[in-house]
Amino acid sequence: MAAFPLAHVIESQQFDRELLEVVFQTADQMKADLLGERRFARSLDGRIMASLFYEPSTRTRFSFESAMLRLGGAVITTENAREFSSAAKGESLSDSTRIMNGYADVIVMRHNEAGSAARASEISCIPVINAGDGAGQHPTQALLDMYTIMDAFPEKNSLKIAMVGDLRYGRTVRSLSYLLTKYENVEIIFVSPPVCKMEGDIKAYLDKNNVPWREETDLAEVAPEVDCVYMTRIQKERFHDPEDYKTAAGRYILTPERVRTMKPDAIIMHPLPRVDEIPKEVDDDPRAQYFQQAMNGLYIRMALLYLLLKKD
Ligand code: CP
Question: β-strands 106-111, 159-164: how paired?
Answer without folding.
Answer: unpaired
